[in-house]
Design brief:
Blueprint: H1 5-31, H2 59-62, H3 66-73, H4 90-106
Length: 123
């Protein structure tokens, strides 16, 4: 017997709080400075900083959050649902990704799986 969309929505809803908590922890770890000593406003000055113009985490790094989605939802985080350019905050990332993950989870968003590479034959 196949699982219905309503059952999948209920299953997703039961996992949302854990998903958000795990994503918050992942985001915090990913965006902390390596040595923990760099201030958020540094470098400062009248002209500002080019670092301040970048997102807190770029879209390529967000793909690494698959460890969270695999652990909580048992699905990969599809790169197709990640906002191009990345996210300025964890709240922005969660607000964008979680509803899309629900659609992937219940099957409303179909994700193409990459085809496996052909094995090289040795002649």
């Amino acid at each position: 017997m196949a699982t219905t969309k309503d059952e999948l929505k209920k299953a997703f809803a039961a996992k949302v709080s854990k998903l958000k908590a795990e994503l918050e922890a992942w985001f915090k770890e990913e965006t902390e400075s390596i040595d923990g000593s760099v201030e958020a406003g540094a470098p400062s000055g009248a002209g500002g900083s080019i670092m301040g113009m970048r997102p807190a985490i770029d879209s390529k790094r967000v793909v690494d959050a698959t460890v969270v989605t695999k652990k909580v939802l048992d699905i990969d985080l599809p790169p197709q649902i990640i906002k191009a350019g990345g996210y300025g905050s964890c709240d922005e990332m969660i607000a964008d990704i979680v509803p899309k993950l629900e659609k992937v989870f219940i099957g409303d968003i179909k994700v193409r799986k990459p085809k496996p590479a052909k094995e090289l034959s040795t002649v």
